[in-house]
Write a structure and sequence with these properties.
288 residues; alpha/beta; Rossmann fold; 2 domains; ten-stranded mixed beta sheet; two-stranded antiparallel ribbon; Stress-inducible protein; UspA
Length: 288
Amino acid sequence: MTRPITAGVDGTEESLAALDWAAREAVRRGLPLRVVHVWRYEESLAAADRDTQLRWVSEGVREAVRTVSGRHPGLEVAVDVVEDGAARALAGAAAGAEMLVLGSRGHGRVVGFLVGSVGQHVIAETARPVVLVRAEDRPAAEAAGRDVVVGQHGGPEDSADALRFAFETAAARGAAVRAVRAWTLPPVFAYSPGSLKLLDDEGGLEPYERRSLAEAVRPWRERFPEVPVAEHVEMGSAAQVLLAAAADAQLTVVGRRAHRTAVGARIGSVAYGVLHHAACPVAVVPHR
């Protein structure tokens, strides 16, 4: 089954930028585009009954879709107007999508995203990649020379889904991948005789980290030989190292594991930090 690229649209500048981004990506990947608008009947609009409000909403969505279709004449586009809660409807839309693309307000005047409760819920709950796009995003930002940056951690399987997404995206764009791994000095009490011997055999901590990154990236180099790859290892916090490496990226890809708490699912600290400070679109890819 072909999964569409799905964009959530609510009429804001951010969501229209997300729609443009999703349409370009759908064209590059040869996939259909699905546009989803979530609404609820507003009783406070006394002059408009349910059918009238639905007609207003539908007309607004169709106008946005006409604009995108005009830019991409061959693109297959489907539109769904859903009456439901935003978080539940978008999470449901993501389930059947190749990825879900949402708009997000900029954090401050320069960089980053403000990810509201709906966005955080959708990111944490869905098993599909979610891409956040700001209103300031422009097609020129995808120009040649800008890498797709992806964070890698743990063993090869721990970041396999994020690496796959980064390489697929770079291949579709004719871009390079920059794979980034951060490391820190572990507490002395964390060392065991076995781990000390392993690190000694590897020549120290940093060479060990470089080998770990190379091992994780190797199968994706082989699967996508046309994609240039740079590997970057640096000591520091994962979010800070990834943000520094992605300063001039066209897309940042970060993996995440949802953390369950008494009040529901939460995204991890690295994904949260990157989302709030990245200057480019961010793809959050769940580890399956």
